[in-house]
# Entry
Amino acid sequence: MCGIVGYVGENKVYPFLIQGLKRLEYRGYDSAGLAISNGSLLVHKCKGRVADLERHVLSKETEGTVGIAHTRWATHGEPNDRNAHPHLSMNRHFALVHNGIIENYAELKIDLAKNGYLFQSETDTEVLVNLIEFFYQQSDEINAEIAVRLALSKVVGAFGIAVICREEKDQLIVARRGSPLVIGIGQGEYFVASDATPLIGYTDNVIYLNDNDVAVITKNNLTLKTLDDKPASFKISRVDRSIGEIEKGEFAHFMLKEIFEQPKTIEDTFRGRISHDHTAIVLGGLLDIFPKLIKAKRIILIGCGTSWHAALVGEYLIETYARVPVEVEYASEFRYRNPILSADDVVIAISQSGETSDTLVALRMAKERGATILGICNVVGSSIARETDAGVYTHAGIEIGVASTKAFTAQVTVITLFALKLAFAKGEITEAHYHEIIQELTEIPEKIRTILAGHLRIEEIAAKYKDASNALYLGRGALFPVALEGALKLKEISYLHAEGYAAGEMKHGPIALVDDNLPVVVVAPKDHYYEKIVSNIQEVKARKGNIIAVATEGDTVLKEMVNDVFEIPESHTAVAPLLAIIPLQLFSYYIAVMRGCDVDQPRNLAKSVTVE
Ligand code: G6P
# Structure
């Protein structure tokens, strides 16, 4: 949520800032801006995308080797030129970019106004930059670093900030509490970003800031301290990413690229975790903690958005196979509802970014109450990954499309491995059954390739439904969350209203919506719910709904019964969610493209939500 980049070194800063913003645009795209320090502070910013900023800057001065930039997802103040970052302090001593929310900005603003400060924007960020300047001007003893420290000590809320000062022109100051920041170490240069994506191709060596770290950076020096001016410990990590991962290549959109990457990302996720002979699962990250997991009385899965849907799939799998009671909670609800937790509980956070604020805070709360906390994250080194007792990374690679696809299937892969391993360790499934499902999981990538090969047919079907204004998605068992996820994909990128429902619940309300205009997508492979879901299909058919079924290849009965079919290969029930979601992702993608929607950057959404 909001992207920050910064640079200090010997090279011209503008190209890095613009390229960095483009790579971070998935974090927010309401407005963009940059500030360069070259004796004065040059600030250029405008409403819209990074491409708009590039046009806006065309004939403007951009000389300088120190700078900061920002792409915004609006919280305080509508998206417009004035509210765009960077914000300048009133007397133009400081420029600042900010990710997060200053919760006490209103009272700070009143105090600053009493001291003569005037404000141009409606943002909390402008209050912070003026507060820094206010302290800076109190005495000659107070340099930029001290002023930043003093200002941040007054702030309630979350921030990741990068600041430049007119008088201290060779230096960049960054600080974080709650919003991620990473520093890239180059040769005679440093890079700053809200995640490592902009650093790819520039450096592999990074430092992930911890909460309450403040770094003062010049081209040859980095000083890292805590907010209260104590030396801070840090570790240099390696980012092992290639440029190819952040480019679309032959694909029209990142989302499409990521959908097509799934056979590989699922393989990457189970590679090294399934033995060569497909008889054992090894989850290295959980090795030490596993004895504790076997004894867990309850597992609570938390997440938001698509990750919450992966958690729901996890509930079915863990309860079915490992026979441990599971609860699934929206992190945003869990954190505020005073949940009852004990040392026998295991709380597992599922998060692609590892930075979602609600999930992170919920996890901290669970830890304080004595539960064991685990993470299933995609971004290596992310806050959730670092704060959990143990965890498993999904190796989906960088996901750029705002609508999550490959991260979801990687999460479901990990949760499937986890459920099976736990089930076998607890003696809840036989060795033969364990081996059978592992084998089925290893066959998933090939089966997904088959579904993807039929993408043109899915596109044709999408063309028939592109003008609908509502859609209903139905599923049962572990395929109910797949129906929810299918509906979410459609909503997110095509702005069609779509609702996911447990098929058996349809008769208690949504059936009232069914008429000859309503597309009803039913996830109905041949599993032990088949007869039941066929009855639900009949109920829709009797009311003239248009039925699109996700059906097992060769199911001629369903083919006769429904309007359109997305075929998926036959599979074990435990791994069916990984197949059933693929046609639904493609269906949403094609509908959104046909409706002229911006697939990779849908309106109002952001990839990583680091505010409550
Ligand atoms: C945002 C994204 C969703 C994502 C959710 C949770 O809303 O747009 O795609 O599922 O956050 O993100 P996380 O990084 O925690 O999985």
Observations:
- The pocket of 6-O-phosphono-alpha-D-glucopyranose is lined by residues 304-307, 351-353, 356, 359, 402, 404, 605, 607-609 (CB under 6 Å).
- The chain has three domains: 3-244, 254-442, 453-598.
